[in-house]
Amino acid sequence: MDARAFLGIEQLDDNRWRLRVTERLITPGNFLFGGCGLAAGLVALEHDGGRPTVWAAAHYLSHAPTGSDVIITTEFPAVGGRVTQARAVASVGDDEIMTVVASLGTGDLEATVPWDVMPDVAPPDECAPRQSLHFFGETIFSHLDTRVALGRSFQELDGQPGSPRSAVWSRLADHPDFSAATLAIFGDHLAGGATEPLGFPVMGRSLDNTLRMAKLVPTEWVLIDMRMHAVHHGFAHGTAFLWSEDGVLLGTASQSISLKRWDPSALRGS
Predict the structure, then answer these.
(1) Residue 187 main-chain phi, psi, to 5 deg
(2) 196-248: per-residue pLDDT in tens?
(3) Which of 17, 28, 145, 244 gives a 20 to 30 Å CA spacing to 116?
(4) Using one digit for the tens of pLDDT, what is the confidence trace for 47-105?
(5) Residue 255: its pLDDT value, please?
(6) Which is it for the CA torsion 113, 118, 119, 124, positive or negative?
(7) Per residue, what are the HEC states of the chain?
(8) Domains and CATH numbers, the chain
């Protein structure tokens, strides 16, 4: 299965696509998971533009509720010899909910040695599963197998601040073929990355999601190496390094996130 099939996105005509917001694509808040929105935009842009993603950024303007149809329209304002500058606009009815801007292209220059290295963590089968909170219900997280590689689980958070760096292994239950779109889904784990440094569970709603591609290689698991930079006035900023199981840097994802603290009484019932 590829990302297009996982998302269920379908092409309507030369530059229009439709995405039905089903339970497998939503957040615990019952609206489209931001990473799935960016992923859908990239499926459309790469198909219509005929080139792979170099970088892409989604700006989230509003929510697409469960059961709604998202219409994605692609545009290509500038097409060069190596790079295509692209844009996708996603709407529900008359309301624009997301804009994706991207550069698509390829080149032949490549470093011979890695410029960054994966942190030394245990492999996925030696890491404890991260248990979802009981009130999450059926969401995108029901289709993600996630293991805690660095940091604490939700149930271990005790109010004491921790490290700004944490990491989880994750894989999609249906194991889609790897692409920029699948990485966009993994990268949106960063929206919860502030829980470890703060020491208590928070709900993070992404304001944006920027994906920068490195090298795609086959891998079942992705290590999401999250590095939070700051939290101020209720907003967090951070970057996730996305690694293959054998230590290849697949790409990076960065976000600004609006934070809200989870209700402690709900946690006690988890």
Answers:
(1) -60, -25
(2) 999 998 888 999 999 999 999 999 999 999 999 999 999 999 999 999 999 99
(3) 145
(4) 999 999 999 999 999 999 999 999 999 999 999 999 999 999 999 999 999 999 999 99
(5) 97
(6) negative
(7) CCHHHHHCCEEEECCEEEEECCHHHECCCCEECHHHHHHHHHHHHHHHHCCCEEEEEEEECCCCECCCEEEEEEEEEEECCCEEEEEEEEEECCEEEEEEEEEEECCCCCCCCCCCCCCCCCCHHHCCECCCCHHHCCCHHHHEEEEEEECCCHHHCCCCCCCCEEEEEEEECCCCCCCHHHHHHHHHHHHHCCHHHHCCCEEEEECEEEEEECCCCCCCCEEEEEEEEEEECCEEEEEEEEEECCCCEEEEEEEEEEEEECCHHHHHCC
(8) 3-105 (2.40.160.210), 131-268 (3.10.129.10)
Kindly report, residue by residue over 108-147, the tens digit of the pLDDT. Answer: 998 888 899 999 999 999 999 987 655 567 899 889 999 9
**In 10 A of CB 266, how many CB atoms?**
12
Report the distance separating Cα 121 and Cα 30, nearest Å: 33
Q: β-pairing, 222-232 with 165-172? A: antiparallel
How crowded is residue 220: how many other Cβ atoms within 10 Å of its Cβ? 13
C-alpha 133/C-alpha 117 separation (Å) is 32
In total, the chain counts a number of residues equal to 270
